């Protein structure tokens, strides 16, 4: 794994850990956030027959770089009546929550921060950390809108974790593993081995799984969308009613950390969906490296496919965002408790019965 | 129970309809006009910044009188008989030195009423609409082509000419010898009076500044209004 590689390279355990943990941040999260913010603005603009940023660079390509430069220069405002320790800790905690999730995400067969057996459970648990961060931010800002946003956010994230976990459970029942790396390895070969199409093998159960896998995919996609506070589930940061919710009082780099965490989260949940249902880093058609007998090419291809699938689902998230209006609080809870959870439960039971077959 | 499944179905179907609409709009060309680079074509008879072509102006003051908001200020001096000012492009002979032609575009209401009375069609509306300024004074456009020194000079010339003419008339009855002596006496004090006046005018190259009230006597009516408008 990546840690062993750096250990052999540097000969120092600490250095290997530091490099291994910083790598996803610098080679992936920061560039992804830069690209995703621009992509979001361009996609939204073109969906509304506008052009979006056009001035900075060719078709506004450098717009987010300019925005980051602006954010760095901004004053870091801490109001008099803010709860200062919590106020300063909150963005760090929110970002740490979404960053830590990347430790267990298998980018390729060779690049996985920490190859733990409970990978998917770890991700679900650690993203709960950002709930604490959001509540902290809302409380410490000492502002009724931020507090309202934070409380809505916490209620929402906790509710929507249940359908997510139910769907994940059904997958664990089928595969018998919670390690994302093993899950991805299982789905190797061609795209008909992906979990969305019933998983590997060619038995009767594979075809019986297909409809329930699709239902499971839809449920987990909706619920993870709600977990990262994206539209149509963005009532915690509803601009029009709550003036952006829990990060209203933040400015400068602290705001940038919330922003970065939001985009990192977007990719993290897409990566989870990809790893669970769409073969993770596996190529849909087999590898060029195998046919050309170039073993070093395979991880690069895997990285490409993983990013490709992940970004595809991020774009679908944006597509949904610019299509659907925001749900009301009671509607939001109704979607979760009256629809997603019962369906996920029934799905879980049926999948369990088929597994017994 | 059937309502429950109906709800699920309507949710799925309406969301997919909406997604289809937004996806289609991804490929609809944008309606945005990239303004400073691309500009909308203006209508044929658009009325924007007022322009005055000084070469054709005969100084008839008709546009200033037509203006409902008094944004045009004109001052003229008669030319001397031996001076030739040339002709306008449509053949009218110019007889007046235009020593002041100010258009306060901040006051202008773009009514185009000044355009029609002009006998030489030298004042008209252009298609320029980007002329914002940081100072309001900069919105007073000075169209007179004479330099500030020339403007003073023309006035002096005419006054001198008037004096000479008056002197000639006065000398017509008495004898020729007496006339010459008189003329030299009268002309000298006249010059002394004029010279301090010219000193007043010279620093004020901007005709719009409110200080040249004493120097310019022609538009004593418009000046007080001018002062009210200025932010102090």
Chain-wise SSE layout:
The complex is a heterodimer of chains A (357) and B (232).
Chain A: H1 2-10, H2 13-47, H3 63-73, H4 84-101, H5 119-140, H6 144-175, H7 180-186, H8 204-227, H9 239-242, H10 252-277, H11 288-291, H12 297-321, H13 329-356
Helix pairs in contact in A: 1-2, 2-10, 2-12, 3-10, 4-5, 4-10, 5-6, 6-8, 6-13, 8-10, 8-13, 10-12
Chain B: H1 2-26, E1 50-52, H2 62-66, E2 72-78, E3 96-104, E4 123-125, E5 140-142, H3 148-172, H4 176-201, H5 222-229
Antiparallel strand pairs in B: 1-4, 2-3, 3-5
Gross morphology of chain B is rod-shaped
Main sheet attributes: strand count, strand direction, barrel closure of chain B: 3 strands, antiparallel
Q: Provide mean pLDDT of chain B, rounded.
A: 76
Q: Tell me the span between the first and last alpha carbons of chain A.
A: 37 Å
The proportion of strand residues of chain A reads under 5%
**What low-confidence regions of chain A span 5 or more consecutive residues with pLDDT below 50?**
none
Taken together, the total number of domains of chain A comes to: 2
Which structural class do the helices and strands of chain A define? mainly alpha
- Name the overall outline of chain A: globular
The number of helical segments of chain A is 13
Secondary-structure element series of chain A: HHHHHHHHHHHHH
Count of helices of chain B? 5
Looking across the biggest beta sheet of chain B, what order are the strands in? 2-3-5
């Amino acid at each position: 794994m990546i840690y062993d590689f750096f250990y052999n390279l540097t000969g120092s355990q600490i250095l290997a850990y530091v490099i291994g943990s910083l790598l996803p941040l610098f080679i992936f999260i920061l560039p992804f956030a830069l690209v995703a913010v621009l992509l979001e603005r361009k996609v939204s603009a073109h969906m509304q027959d506008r052009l979006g940023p056009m001035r900075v660079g060719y078709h506004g390509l450098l717009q987010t770089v300019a925005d980051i430069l602006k954010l760095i220069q901004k004053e870091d405002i801490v109001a008099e009546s803010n709860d200062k320790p919590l106020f300063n800790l909150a963005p760090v905690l929110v970002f740490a929550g979404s960053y830590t999730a990347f430790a267990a995400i298998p980018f390729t067969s060779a690049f996985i921060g920490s190859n733990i057996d409970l990978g998917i459970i770890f991700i679900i648990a650690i993203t709960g950390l950002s709930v604490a961060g959001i509540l902290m931010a809302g409380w410490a800002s000492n502002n009724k809108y931020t507090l309202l946003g934070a409380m809505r956010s916490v209620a929402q994230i906790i509710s929507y974790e249940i359908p997510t976990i139910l769907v994940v459970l059904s997958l664990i029942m089928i595969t018998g593993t919670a390690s994302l790396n093993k899950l991805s390895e299982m789905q190797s070969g061609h795209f008909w081995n992906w979990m969305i199409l019933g998983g590997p093998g060619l038995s009767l159960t594979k075809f019986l799984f297909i409809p329930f896998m699709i239902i499971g995919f839809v449920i987990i996609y909706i619920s993870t969308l709600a977990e990262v506070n994206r539209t149509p589930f963005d009532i915690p940061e509803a601009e029009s009613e709550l003036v952006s919710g829990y990060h209203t009082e933040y400015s400068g780099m602290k705001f940038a950390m919330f922003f970065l965490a939001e985009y990192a989260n977007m990719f993290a949940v897409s990566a989870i969906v990809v790893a669970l249902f769409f073969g993770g880093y596996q190529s849909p058609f087999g590898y060029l490296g195998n046919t050309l007998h170039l073993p070093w090419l395979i991880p690069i291809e895997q990285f490409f496919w993983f990013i490709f699938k992940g970004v595809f689902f991020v774009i679908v998230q944006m597509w949904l965002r610019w299509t659907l209006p925001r749900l009301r609080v009671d509607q939001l809870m109704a979607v979760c408790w009256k629809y997603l959870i019962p369906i996920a439960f029934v799905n879980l039971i049926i999948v369990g019965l088929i597994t017994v077959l | 129970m059937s309502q429950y499944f109906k709800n699920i179905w309507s949710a799925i179907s309406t969301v997919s309809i909406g997604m289809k609409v937004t996806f289609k709009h991804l490929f609809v060309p944008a309606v945005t006009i990239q303004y400073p680079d691309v500009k909308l074509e203006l209508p044929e008879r658009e009325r924007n910044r007022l322009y005055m072509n000084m070469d054709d102006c005969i100084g008839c003051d008709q546009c200033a009188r037509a203006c409902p908001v008094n944004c045009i200020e004109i001052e003229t001096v008669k030319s001397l008989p031996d001076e030739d000012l040339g002709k306008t492009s449509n053949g009218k002979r110019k007889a007046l030195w235009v020593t002041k032609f100010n258009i306060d575009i901040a006051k202008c209401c773009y009514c185009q009423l000044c355009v029609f009375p002009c006998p030489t069609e030298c004042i008209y509306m252009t298609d320029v609409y980007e002329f914002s300024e940081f100072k309001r004074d900069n919105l007073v456009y000075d169209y007179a082509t004479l330099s500030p020194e020339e403007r003073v000079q023309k006035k002096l010339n005419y006054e001198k000419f008037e004096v000479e003419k008056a002197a000639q008339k006065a000398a017509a009855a008495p004898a020729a010898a007496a006339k010459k002596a008189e003329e030299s006496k009268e002309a000298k004090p006249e010059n002394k009076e004029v010279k301090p006046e010219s000193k007043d005018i010279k620093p004020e190259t901007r005709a719009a500044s409110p200080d040249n009230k004493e120097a310019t006597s022609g538009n004593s009516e418009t000046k007080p209004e001018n002062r009210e408008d200025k932010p102090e």
